[in-house]
Amino acid sequence: MTHPALSLALASGAAALLAALWPLALRRKNALRFLLCLSMLVAGLLAVAGGVLGLTGDTAAIILPVGLPWLPMHLQLDALGAFFLLLIGIVLAPVSIYSFGYLRGRSDIATLAVFMPLFVLGMQGVVLANDAFSFMLFWELMSVASYFLVTLEHDNAANRRAGFIYLLMAHLAGLLILGGFATLYASVHDFTFAAMRGAHLTPFWASVAFLLAAFGFGMKAGVLPLHVWLPEAHPAAPSNISALMSGVMLKVALFGFLRLVWDLLGPADFQWWWGVLILAAGTSTAFAGILLALQQNDLKRLLAYSSVENVGIILIGFGLSLLLAYFGHPQLAALGLIAALYHA
User: Which residues pair with 73 in a beta bridge?
Assistant: First the structure.
């Protein structure tokens, strides 16, 4: 029998998928708006329930008979995934309520009604993925769906430019992340995370995997100087989507970094300079983000740079935890992680 927390997480994903199908059946905009927002609200509440249960219960896993012929889709809800699933739900639920009024009268609601649920489904899939193929599949779904949301008002040349920059950097980040997984795969010849945790890497190849993950996930999270897409894409996107991008998507990128570095590589492979690099990147991102925010006269650009600042603060906690774990202080390292997750 499937674990209740994982069942709720899967039900949340099913609600998001159902929401993406409503435009195929409905033509009346008011009915479509109502069912979209209702489905997203249900998905958000189910994600909150699944996240809370996942934090208090054991790790649950399931294998779905979809994916590649030789690689079915492995999904798992552990404490780390449950925490970020909870974050998704906490933001998605109020955004869904807000969207009911915000979307009133919009002529492009059918397009948004397809790609907003797919964007949410992609983020949910990333935190549930338990193999590299599923992770990259949901990661690309999240990136491509959010591109169509950023360029929703594509009559505006600035929005098209913002979408192009975003898509370019999103796929560059995807290639770097794929390289990180490929480094682990080369050691174990298996795409599942359970096998990758047992990879025996030399310090050189562990560092290669770390750097690919740091730059790939850092680009998606908006870490300086890889943040250039963020202040362009967020003002271009509708406000409800900007809330999901700032409040959730950037944190999903940080989840990916934790999954690959802390979980798959593990403290046994840590090197002292990893923590120094992340600590330096977090500090510079936090300072530069708030200074750039203070210079803005557009509220959405200000909030975008504020998101950059907050990602930097979270990375300071990650960097400290890496350093403390390397030098043999697991309790203090855990405290650094707790601080970072609390700020998320």
Answer: 64
